Amino acid sequence: MTNKHIISYTLCLISILLVHSACNDGGPEVVYDPTPYALSFGEFPPPVIPDDNKPTVAGVELGRMLFYEKALSKDGSIACADCHQQKDGFSDIRQFSLGVGDLEGKRQAMPVFNLAWHNNGMFWDGRSQLVRDQALKPIQDPLEMNETLENVVAKLSAMKTYRDQFIRTFGDDTITSERIGLAIEQFEFTMISNNSKFDQFQKGEVLLTESEERGRILFFQELDPFLGQKGGECFHCHGGFNFTNDQYMNNGLDTDAGFTDLGRFTVTNDPVDKARFKVPSLRNVALTPPYMHDGRFSTLEEVIEHYATGVKQSSTLDELMFHNVEPGGLQLTAEDKADLIAFLKTLTDERFLTDEQFSSPFK
Q1: Topology alike, domains 51-193 and 197-347
Q2: Dihedral through CA 276, CA 277, CA 283, CA 285, nearest 10?
Q3: By C-alpha distance, which of 328, 324, 67 is closest to 191?
Q4: Phi and psi for 145 in degrees, rounded to 5?
Q5: Residue ranges of the domains in the chain?
C-alpha cells in the first residue's frame, strides 16, 4: 500500500469515526422500556387500573415530569403542581387557584391523591370520566393554563428530554395530547396516601388519644335521640378506606334560591343533580383548606358547625342530611366537635407530604 493509499484510508477511517461519534453525542441509545411500575397500596383493596394504561417505570416518570412542567401553560408560568402542592396534600390552600395572568378559577382545586380508586368521574361535577381526560382540561381552560394542546405538543416535541422519555414510555418519540394524558394518569395513579396515624392505628401500630378515639366513635356512629346515642353521621358519605363514597351529593350548603353553582346538573341536565358535587376524600383534610366546592369554609371548625347546625333545606338535599336539618341538628357539644376535629387530624399522612417519588424531578 502506498503512502497515498495509507493517507486516504486513514482519512476515511477518521471520517467514519467522527460520524459515529456525532451520532452518539446524546449518550446510549434510547429504547422502549416496558418495565411495570409496582403500585404500593398497602392495606387498600387493589385498584382497578385501565387495561390500556398499566403504569410503567418510564411512563410514571414521564407523567411526573409533565405534572411539574410549566411549558404546559401559555406563558410558561404554571404547572399542575402549582395548584396541587405536595406540602399541602397536593391541594391549593387559596380559595381559588390563580391561572395565567393571575385569573381566578371558579371552584376550589380538589386535592390529588388516591385517584386510582375514583371510578365515578373527575372534578367537582364529574365532567371528565377518566384521570387522563381530567389531566388535559386545565391546560385548555382560559382561567388556568390557557394553552392549546397543539402548542403543548409542539413545545414538548422541541425538547430532546421529552422525545427521549416518550420513546422509553411508548416506543417512539411521537408526542400527542392523548399520550400526555396517559402519562399524567400513570403518575397520578401512583400518588397513594395510606400512611396516616389512623392507618397505623388500624394496623395496631399506634394508639389514639382519648379525644381522637371519642371523635372516631362519633364519626362512625349514627345519631339516635330515642336511644340517647350521639353520632356525627359522617361515615355515610365519608366511609370506607378512602373516606369517600365517590358519589355526587347536595350537603345543604344553600337553599334552592341560593344555588349559584348547579354542580353535577351542568353535566347531566338532570334536575335532581342541581347543587350536587363530588364527595371528596377526607384523607389529609386538615392540610387542604379551604373547604367545599367554593372554598367558603376556612377551617374544620366551620365545616363541623355547618353539619351540626347549618345544613339548609332544598329540593335536592340528600336524604342522609335530614337529621342535620331537624331542630337542634346533630346535638353536638363543644367537646364533641373538638373530638371530631381531633380524629380528622389523624387522617394526615406526613410521609406523603415529603415522599421524593412525588416531588419535582427538576430540582
Answers
A1: yes
A2: -100
A3: 67
A4: -80, -20
A5: 51-193, 197-347
Question: How far is the CA of 313 from the CAs of 94, 222, 292, in angstroms?
Answer: 28, 20, 17
Sign of CA dihedral 204, 210, 215, 217: positive
Q: What is the pTM of this model?
A: 0.91
DSSP helix/strand/coil, 346: helix
Annotation says 144 is catalytic: yes
CATH class for the region spanning 197-347? mainly alpha
Q: How far apart are CA 149 and CA 151, in angstroms?
A: 5
- The amino acid occupying position 19 is V
Q: How far is CA 67 from CA 130, 136, 181, 361, in A?
A: 16, 11, 10, 10
* CA distances to 178, 179, 313 from 170, in Å: 12, 8, 52
* Marked catalytic residue, from 29, 43, 104, 144: 144
According to the model, what pLDDT value does residue 25 have?
A: 52
Helices (DSSP H) in 24-91: which residue ranges?
Answer: 57-67, 80-83
Domain 51-193 adopts which CATH fold? Cytochrome Bc1 Complex; Chain D, domain 2 (1.10.760)
Interval 4-29: pLDDT, tens: 443 343 334 333 333 333 344 557 89
Distance between CA atoms of residues 112 and 89, nearest Å: 7
